[in-house]
Amino acid sequence: MSLPAVDVLIVGAGAYGLSSAWWMAKRQSGARILVVDEGEFASGASGRNGAGFRMQWGLELNIRLCQESLRFFETAVDQLDYPQGLELKQDGYLVLAHSDKAFATLDSVLPTQHRLGVPSELLDADECVRMVPGLGRNRLVGGSFCGKDGSISPFRLLDALLRACRRDPNVEVRYRTRVERLEKSNGSFQVSLTGGPVEAKRVLLCTDWAVPQLLAPLGAEVPVVSLPKEAIVTVPRAQMVKPILVSLEHHISVNQVDRGSIVFVVARPREGTSIESTPDFLAYAAPKITDLLPPMADVPILRTWGGVSSVTPDMQPILGETEVEGLYVAVSSFRGLMTSPAVGRMMADLVIDNDTNDPILAQLGPRRFKTGELIVEPLLNQA
Amino acid sequence: MSGFQFFFEGKTIAAREGQSVAAALIAAGERCLRVDEAGLPKGAVCGIGVCWECRCSIDGSADIRACMTLARPGMNVRRQQGLDPCSDQ
Amino acid sequence: MQRSIVVVGAGPAGLAAATEAATRGAHVTLLDEAARPGGQIYRQAHSALGDSEYAEAGERARKHDILARFQSVASRVDYRPDANVYALFGNGELHVAYGAGSEVLRPDAIVLATGVREMAIPFPGWTTPGVMFAGGAQAVLKSQRVLPGKRAVIAGCGPLPIVVAAQLLRAGGDVAALASLRPLREMLGNPRALWQGRQIVYEGLRYLRTIRRAGVAQLSAHVPIRAIGTERLEAVVLARVDAGGHVVPGAEREIACDLLAVNYGFAANSELAAMAGAELRFDADRGGWLPASDEFGRTSISGLFVAGDVAAVRGALVAEAEGQIVGAAAAVPPKSIGDATMTAALRTALGRRQRHQAFQTAVRTTLRVPRGLWNLTTDDTVVCRCENVKLRDIRSALDAGHSSLNAVKRNVRSGMGWCGGRTCLRAVAALSELHAGIAPPVIMTPRPMVRPITFGAVVAQKKAVDA
Q1: What pLDDT does A371 receive?
Q2: Final residue of a domain: which of A260, A278, A311?
Q3: What ipTM was predicted for this assembly?
């Protein structure tokens, strides 16, 4: 008995999964692509994140990933044929330092950014406060700013990718569809899915922290764990915070979206994969937020939510083929949305064209951990 | 204190002790309490604090529900325009 | 050991629950968002506004009695008005804000008596100032002593429009028309129900007499299909509808007015229970998403009880009896719930609840909204008022295959605004069912906060109180 067959099965319809599917379809190789997701539209980490993107990194590979992705965001309305718009906002991104050490790190990576053409600059505390008048001065030393960085609506981007994929006769996207079992025999994958089995020549796992549990039965592994975060959105307000903010010390990012609502994403060390808001979260986050931005004390909170992103040992994505031939992973390490266009393109290179020449891909493969040497991104290991 | 006055968009509104801002405005024939971000005029709807449609700017504070706020003598109530908090001069 | 109980809501169910639990010696905290107890039905005006009442004598007596009973135990109840219960977690933590401060409570038992809000069917022009929920217009009259309009059209289904029309007339208002979705004789056709609800039916007939004597135009099988006006309501267009709720062409009439008070039934305030993770069921006729509960108000979460309309819309008389029953259940040790001693002590309340519930079940059909009525919402009609989401936007998301309330929300922002979806969610669910066949509706994931509170109020939070 022959199973329904596809060329590529992508597991996970978040930013990585849908972007990979779209780029693969764009190659017009005739490959049949099936994307499955156990949740519903935008119900995973991509739909729950803070929406910011930035080119301000310390490593060339991260800067290049985000530069390529930004170029896509800037033309995505046309490329994805999505006239509704993606709520792309390029009012800049201000990375705040609340210690001399953090400020020195921001300073140290500036030459790399400038060499690669990132128009970033260093601001002292006064300049930061001029840019965001509500900023608290407690311990504030300064920041690094890039005016081309900004944010994009995760919902809009995912919807645009989904609609573009669904317009392509070779792509199918199925929600509420879980991978029950993944096996390999005779050179192809037999996959038990909610609603029936399917056979796939190649499989790409885009389920982030949930990748290991899919790999384990096949004897493969990649080092990634869950990274729960929680977020807060306020009622809409007239502009209070123009650029996106991130505070390395507070572990908080701030994005006032077009609608006027202010979104705070708060990282708090915690384990697990729960997307529920935790009872003590607000009491934990509110003093940090009012320390960072004192005028927030008077702003009503509309809603909180949780999400689970992922983190790898070197806080870098894991992109490439596993020890099982034909089985690929794309693990974001908590920056999935902002890198998704470049990663989607690379996964199409790799999975559809067998092209392994991309220098970034060469650095981010799953086998790199066997060497024991970790990539160090100064702006992440600092935080 | 039984009868007193407050201000709505510069007009004098009569109110009684114990009345909400919304009730006093309705009694004075003022229906439109806000113009929302899409430019739609909005008034009181649920009367019990559920719908948040009657949000006004009161003494410089934005988004105060007129139906849940007691009128006080001399208060300055403004018709919010979109997200403009109508800070008072 | 004295059990600690928090009752949320000071309407008939909450007052009765608090009274019963306090009588049984429990340590009771009663939280309510209003300034004075009574809830929506027994709403009290500020003392400075005096005590003229337009309600029937029977209702006034019930209000007086329940408030008096509560007063008799009030010294033993920690009653907190102006309280905003903004979150309830599965671990039993209740988060409450009071103006600029907040607090976390962790009692032995929680009774949610949060009642209902009015359910909207969006129609063209319904965002015009002057279009109100009927209960909202009544609240202005009842607690503010202000006529909510100079010339009113009252519309909808069930008894509330009748009550509001009569009370407006008694307060000296002008009612231009009373439009009812269904003819009243549907209810009058069930003699057994009439007998069981004779007290309410009698009051209803008195209200109807007020309306008839005033010469108000009564239009049955009519609904408002359009509100006219920009900055204020100028007129309402009423049209005849058939039994399926479809507008009959050519039977429209325009009536000048400055108030349209409309009610199409109620939606249960079940957000707190849902947020805590209590199992829900959906019953469109009884308030939509309802916490699944047993005869003693126990939900699927240990220590979490529901009483009154939030458990299923059945009116104030059921709510009061049920409040007493659930208040007792929350006050006794869990293993004693439903034992012989308890049920014997509650015999009167159990009987009263059963009797009034039978009446409510019989009149349920007069409150049912026929499916076709949702066609009043046109593509250009705003459905989610907070975020200005039109039916067209929702249909576009549905057409693109976004087939759940969560997915629609993520696409068009319906339910993401100030009111947290409490005004539009039932409509989004019904319209998704009508236009895309999505059923049964799964509730949009409930999240903190039920109502907005400021960061400052959280910062000023008192430490968790273990009672």
Answers
A1: 81
A2: A311
A3: 0.96
